[in-house]
Specification:
Blueprint (H helix, E strand, L loop, with lengths): L1 H16 L32 E10 L9 E11 L4 E12 L2 E16 L3 E17 L17 E17 L2 E8 L16 E10 L5 E12 L2 E14 L8 E11 L3 E11 L2 E10 L9 E11 L18
Antiparallel strand pairs: 1-2, 1-14, 2-3, 3-4, 4-5, 5-6, 6-7, 7-8, 8-9, 9-10, 10-11, 11-12, 12-13, 13-14
Length: 319
Amino acid sequence: MKMKGLFIRIFIFLCLLVSTKAYAQTDISMATHWYNRANYNPASIARTEYIYLFANARRQWEGVAGAPEVLNVQASGYIHKYHSAIGISLVSDQIGISKALNPMLTYAYRLAREDSWSLSMGLSAGVFSRSIDGSLYEAVTENDPALYYDLEKTLKPDANFGVEFQSSYFIAGISSTHLFSIKKDSSLFLNANHRYGYVIYKNNDSELINYSLGLQLVNNYNLTVLEGNASVRLKRPTGLLPGPKELFDIGLTYRTSRNLTFLFAVNISSDFRVGYAYDRTFNVGYNSQPTHEIMLEYRIPSKAASTCLQCKNADEWYR
């Protein structure tokens, strides 16, 4: 009951933070971020049991020419001797004639009381490049003088910072992305600063199911989105010491920007997972074409692993 009471208080706190009307965010949108938060919180790469590989690809508004396409690839590993994790990532974001690339290096430091909690702090640093190819314009009026038909490029330094707390049942974190864009207006050439706050309640006690409930608040200037997620992971008891076999996940996500997402993931093996997300908006006047997203996760267990003693089953997936 105490755990549930804390979760309710955190939920009320996040709701009170929403002081403006909810709109869609302008940072890259990924529905499967509930499986991996490292894209916006570098502290979350402090996974102590394995080398972690992750990729997701998103195609928005299927059937619409020039619709957004996002590719996100990440790899990270933990060094026990230094209580540190190191990672690398690359995000590609293409919308019409505009394409952005965002390669980053990530470092996270982990403090822990192994039987009860851990606290990680992380920093990502890299560059943000964007190009706009004016030659790809399909103007109604040929050679319209109001349009710029050349190739424009920009390259800027980029950084993200975050903190994440984990216990046996809770994950909570705050982060800020694109730090060099703080207090700067967004434009086609500028990656916008976003602030994230989230809390996840996870319960792995049953041998048949795991379940989790999550809330996330995202803010960019006067744009604020509250997102809720509920997911269930089905398992099959094996009677062996390592514990039950995890089979597949199903989940739903709703955003106050009037977006609903269905999530599904299946464990191909104990260290390999494939996921899919189907996203649809219910905003009047916006394109209602569906959005598809696929996800791949792979773990390479570390023989040196000696932490995560709070985990009741070492085979359970890190959240």
